[in-house]
UniProtKB/TrEMBL annotation:
Cellular compartments annotated: Cytoplasm
GTP-binding listed as a keyword: yes
Residues where GTP binds: 17-24
Entry keyword set: Chaperone, Cytoplasm, GTP-binding, Nickel insertion, Nucleotide-binding
HAMAP family referenced in this protein's UniProt entry, alphabetically: UreG
Residue ranges, compositional bias (Basic and acidic residues): 240-253
Entry-linked Gene3D superfamilies: P-loop containing nucleotide triphosphate hydrolases (3.40.50.300)
Database matches in InterPro entries: CobW/HypB/UreG_nucleotide-bd (IPR003495), P-loop_NTPase (IPR027417), UreG (IPR004400)
The keyword Cell membrane is assigned to this record: no
Residue span, CobW/HypB/UreG nucleotide-binding domain: 14-182
Protein name, per record: Urease accessory protein UreG
Lineage: Bacteria, Bacillati, Actinomycetota, Actinomycetes, Micrococcales
Chain intervals for the UniProt region annotation (Disordered): 208-274
Quaternary state and interactors: Homodimer. UreD, UreF and UreG form a complex that acts as a GTP-hydrolysis-dependent molecular chaperone, activating the urease apoprotein by helping to assemble the nickel containing metallocenter of UreC. The UreE protein probably delivers the nickel.
Length: 274
């Protein structure tokens, strides 16, 4: 019998980046532009709320039940890198309820410059910076900037107001990525929106056709968090994708657009070979 290389599941595309760079807006844009031609779903990760999911549902860009939220608890990068189970369950729920899907977008909770997705959760990832974070940020590098599958420099329309030279920032970013793809994006610039949607279309076809091997951009640098009581903890993560004892996970939960019974998912998730 001939082997098929087409994966039985959707292309999982992560969207990471620092707080407020425009991850939810980018996802809304992709839904608006592509939902007519690509079967899509979205999973959002917020620390204590499902606010990003609510924003996307309110934007009316996708059927509300195709937008699911994971509440990550204190340590947002944990949910996309060290303990990906609630996200995998949310993705699998979407595929079970609305499948077959072509593309599931997973938004990371806004985090620091070194937060990246585990390849156990996503097939590819976009890292989002914005010009308002400063023209130097791209030069500083880090695993997301250097090795995400695509780097987006967002809000280029704001560059004149924050004294950033966009061309310079894009060429610095390209240098930090050894020539890897970089897109300057503004939702007010249709050509840049086309560049983004073209990249997503091409990646979807590549991944669904079995022609893409996920790459791990690498672990986070040591970093610190303030907890709810204002205590700051500095820590680092192991490189093998397992939990550190000082990371609280107990708050992580998985919520739905409307209540329905939890299904009996096994907690061990094997990633099908692509
Ligand atoms: N001027 C301009 N503003 C933008 C653009 N894209 C997003 N924004 C604004 O940037 C702000 C943050 O956008 P979000 O999409 O919520 O950012 P986020 O990265 O999802 O934020 P967190 O999830 O909180 O980390 C919002 O006020 C958006 O309207 C853009 O292309 N141009
Ligand atoms: Mg967001």
């Amino acid at each position: 019998m001939a082997e098929t290389t087409v994966p039985a599941r959707a292309f999982r595309l992560g969207v990471a980046g620092p707080v407020g760079t425009g991850k939810t807006s980018l996802i809304a844009l992709l839904c608006r532009e592509l939902a007519d031609e690509i079967e899509m779903g979205v999973v959002t990760n917020d620390i204590y709320t499902d606010e990003d999911a609510q924003i996307l549902r309110a934007a009316g860009v996708l059927e509300i039940d195709r937008i699911r939220a994971v509440e990550t608890g204190a340590c947002p990068h944990t949910a996309i890198r060290d303990d990906v189970t609630p996200n995998l369950i949310a993705v699998e729920d979407l595929e079970r309820d609305h499948g077959p899907l072509d593309l599931v977008l997973v938004e990371s909770g806004g985090d620091n410059l070194t937060a990246t997705f585990s390849p156990a959760l996503v097939d590819a990832q976009i890292f989002v910076l914005d010009v308002a974070g400063g023209g130097d940020v791209a030069r500083k590098g880090g695993p997301g900037i250097a090795r995400a599958d695509l780097l987006v420099v967002n809000k280029t329309d704001l560059a004149p107001y924050v004294d950033v030279d966009v061309e310079r920032m894009l060429s610095d970013a390209s240098a930090a990525r050894d020539g890897g793809p970089v897109i300057g994006l503004s939702r007010h610039d249709p050509a840049s929106v086309d560049a983004l949607t073209d990249w997503v279309r091409r990646m979807t076809a590549l991944v669904r056709g079995g022609g893409h091997t996920p790459v791990d951009p690498g672990p986070m640098a040591p970093h610190s968090h303030a907890d709810e009581d204002g205590h700051v903890t500095v820590h680092s993560h192991g490189t093998a994708g397992h939990d550190d004892a000082d990371h609280p996970h107990e708050r992580m939960s998985h919520t739905h657009a409307h209540p329905h019974e939890r299904h009996p998912h096994a907690l061990a998730h094997e990633r099908p070979a692509v």
